[in-house]
């Protein structure tokens, strides 16, 4: 049994360390102060201390002679083993904590409080049996098809078969987003959400469209607080009061389905709720205007008018876009007023509407990762709706048709209808903010905040 001793003064330990001459603990002892020998059944005065214990910071370990030390070696060396194991664990823990909190750009002047938590985990793999877009295996993540059509204002008109392909893929994307929604709570990292999204995509025979798109490293975008869009999932744990936008796009049977929503993490303040609600209202007012013959530029006038009336600004650097067999294509759909978007809505057009609304100014900048877009004026929240919202958002893919259609939403388990004139929202249901006007249901439904 090893006797417990009081800790040595630092100068004594240093002196003992300096007295070492031979590396083997069984052959070399350092003369220190007088103590009682720690060998069992020996109470002689101890003048020597184990040099290995000194190196490992183990307190005590005094012996009266080399003979007592050698005789105790079988049990004494176990102290060394345990101390080394504990040290390795502590170093590993400290290393992980240091890595998680590593700032990859120490000289960068952040506009808000959010920081990246690096290093990122490696890019996830997709089974070879799943159909993938042309950029999936490109070394630069470049879509050659998109590059070929870059700059064109010609808007593709989808036929019945292509429209059905979009219906299917948007439904699958909705299912994936619902799984991400169930993950959102304080303490969960956006990396964990991305992992769940990736598994949900592959389980549905879908390729997660963001993965390797121009080398984007993850399977979805997660934008927290002042991040406007294209946030990269990392090891930062979500905190009470955060607002989180999750942007999902999946690729299935040759078509992309794009949607997102913004979620409240725990309890949020009234300002966050008002931002998200206003963003959603901007989206719905824009949707109400969708019909053949409307100019795409008109949607920006509608969105900015409502945002400004509520004291918010509209991001100008990012816009809605056409989507089908290509992830991003014509038309461009700006969300701000007096824009110069080209094109008139026609039956068979499919596009997204993604208003991004801010509490402060509309100006943005991008982190050095080349993706993460943030508000420039230290305002911590933004909202996107298509949308997406920073926090308050939803993405919607809209299909222009020439016949009246029905939009389907849900509150809890109950499906309710809202009659629309000439557009269809290619989603299965809402899980965040549901504002229903002119609902054809006997019951009234208040706004639902989740």
TrEMBL record:
Cofactor note: Binds 2 divalent metal cations per subunit. Has a high-affinity and a low affinity metal-binding site. The true nature of the physiological cofactor is under debate. The enzyme is active with zinc, cobalt, manganese or divalent iron ions. Has high activity with zinc; zinc cofactor is transferred into the active site region by the ZNG1 zinc chaperone.
GO molecular function: initiator methionyl aminopeptidase activity; metalloaminopeptidase activity; zinc ion binding
Binding positions for Zn(2+) 4 per the UniProt entry: 258, 321, 354
InterPro entries assigned to the protein according to its UniProt record, in alphabetical order: Creatinase/aminopeptidase-like, Pept_M24, Pept_M24_MAP, Pept_M24A_MAP1, Zfn-C6H2
Gene3D superfamilies: Creatinase/methionine aminopeptidase superfamily
Residue ranges of every copy of the C6H2-type domain listed in the record: 34-87
Subcellular location, record wording: Cytoplasm
Keywords assigned by UniProt, alphabetized: Aminopeptidase, Cytoplasm, Hydrolase, Metal-binding, Protease, Zinc, Zinc-finger
Superkingdom of origin organism: Eukaryota
EC number: 3.4.11.18
Assembly and binders: Associates with the 60S ribosomal subunit of the 80S translational complex.
Family: Belongs to the peptidase M24A family. Methionine aminopeptidase type 1 subfamily.
Identification of the protein by name: Methionine aminopeptidase
């Amino acid at each position: 049994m090893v006797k417990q001793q009081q800790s040595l003064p630092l100068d004594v330990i240093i002196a003992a360390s300096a007295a070492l001459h031979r590396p083997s603990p069984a052959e070399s002892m350092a003369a220190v102060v007088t103590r009682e020998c720690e060998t069992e059944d020996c109470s002689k005065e101890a003048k020597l201390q184990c040099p290995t214990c000194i190196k490992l910071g183990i307190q005590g370990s005094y012996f009266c002679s080399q003979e007592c030390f050698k005789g105790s070696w079988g049990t004494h060396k176990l102290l060394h083993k345990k101390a080394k194991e504990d040290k390795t664990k502590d170093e590993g823990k400290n290393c992980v904590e240091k890595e998680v909190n590593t700032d990859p750009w120490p000289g960068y002047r952040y506009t808000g409080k959010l920081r990246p938590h690096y290093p990122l985990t490696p890019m996830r793999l997709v089974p070879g049996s799943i159909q993938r877009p042309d950029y999936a295996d490109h070394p630069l993540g470049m879509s050659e098809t998109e590059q070929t059509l870059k700059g064109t204002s010609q808007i593709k008109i989808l036929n019945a078969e292509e429209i059905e392909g979009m219906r299917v893929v948007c439904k699958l994307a909705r299912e994936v987003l619902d799984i991400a929604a169930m993950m959102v709570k304080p303490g969960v990292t956006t990396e964990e959400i991305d992992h769940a999204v990736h598994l949900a995509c592959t389980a549905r025979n879908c390729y997660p469209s963001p993965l390797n798109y121009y080398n984007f490293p993850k399977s979805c975008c997660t934008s927290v607080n002042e991040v406007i869009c294209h946030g990269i999932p990392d090891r930062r744990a979500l905190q009470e009061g955060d607002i989180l936008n999750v942007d999902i796009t999946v690729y299935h049977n040759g078509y992309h389905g794009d949607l997102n929503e913004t979620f409240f993490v725990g309890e949020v303040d009234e300002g966050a709720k008002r931002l998200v609600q206003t963003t959603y209202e901007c989206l719905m007012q824009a949707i109400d205007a969708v019909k053949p013959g409307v100019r795409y530029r008109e949607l920006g006038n509608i969105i900015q008018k409502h945002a400004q009336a509520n004291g918010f600004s509209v991001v100008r650097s990012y816009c809605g876009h056409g989507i089908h067999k290509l992830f991003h294509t014509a038309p461009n759909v700006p969300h701000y007023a007096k824009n110069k978007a080209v094109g008139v809505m026609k039956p068979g057009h499919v596009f997204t509407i993604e208003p991004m609304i801010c509490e402060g100014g509309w100006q943005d900048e991008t982190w050095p990762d080349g993706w993460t877009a943030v508000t420039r004026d230290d305002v911590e929240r933004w909202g996107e709706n298509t949308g997406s919202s920073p926090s308050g958002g939803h993405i919607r893919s809209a299909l222009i048709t020439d016949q009246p259609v029905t939009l389907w939403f849900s509150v809890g388990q109950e499906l309710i209808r809202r009659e629309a004139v000439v557009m269809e929202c290619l989603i299965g249901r809402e899980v965040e903010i549901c504002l229903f006007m002119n609902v054809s249901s006997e019951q009234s439904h208040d706004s639902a905040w989740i």
